[in-house]
Amino acid sequence: MKKVLILGATGSIGKSSVEILRSEKEKFTVCGLTSFSKRDELESLGKEFNCPTTLVSEEGADSIKRLIDKTKPDIVINGIAGSAGLLPSVFVLEAGINLALANKESVVMAWPVISGIAKKTGSQILPVDSEHSAVFTLINKFGKANLDKIIITASGGPFRTFPPEKLLTVTVNDALKHPTWNMGKKITIDSATLGNKGLEVIEACRLFDAKPADIQVVIHPQSVVHSLIRTKDGIVYAQLSEPDMKHPILQALEWPEITGNFMRPFDLTDELILGIEGKRTLTFERPRFKDFPMLSIAYMAAEKNKSFTIAYNAANEVAVQAFIDGRLSFPGISETVGKVLSSDWSGEVRDLKDVFEADKKARECAESFCCK
Question: Is 339 exposed, middle or buried (0-12, 13-18, 19+ CB in 10 A)?
């Protein structure tokens, strides 16, 4: 039985993880829980699973390290949102523990650091993003040597069909109406700008040692095909399931095994899904790079690498918050990130000090544009 520690237990990834652990008690036991806030909810979960908890907003990131040392988990789910999830990822890997990673910022900001730690300690980084989980599984099945192209799917968000002029006046509430996924506020807005897919392009380059040109993004509104790979013979292979984050979380928790579980088996002709019409359509289209420039900016950052990816993430976090606060328009998010990335971010990333210095500089630069 695996001992599981959940970081960010009251967020969207954490809640899905809790559902899994409630239903798979013969496989997993919860040894610890953290939350940034929501004390009452966290305490309730702690009582339910009879395990220690910590409230990070009051106790700081070091409290996570102490919890790891105290509970000695077999695997840690990092469901913390944003750059705040980086240090916890480092703590897990330094302890030699496998990391089920939903915090893409850890990879985007500090891949040279965390991959080096994982290699040194023997920890496994298991991607929990549905897209990267799918790619991870497919590459393990077909072999990296046979890989020609990684194809990441994107729902397109709530504004996929909006004409360019309509994007000028969309609101925060509009951006939060995601058509297929139920996620936190920041990642939902990132989905609307395609900034989230930009982060995933950078993440894929690093997790799978690929060049930006090897990564293709395809808009797939139904969110059933989670990602695909094309092998050198030109054939494409895909992973399909209903859009439910419990699937990739379970894959990470059970790795390297594949076993039966409580989830409903996927069936393309399931009557509960098909409804009255009895039909299911899966469609694919090219991204609108011009109307959603966060994606092309991400490709540029991935190509230039070094501290450009740190600046991309930091500027995006600042710009998205400014949009939420009403200080920035929706197109202003990509405009701000583009302006920040036009500066020189060619500094090497050798350690966490380099990461945090570049992150701080990029945030200050983004704030200066948001305040104009």
Answer: middle
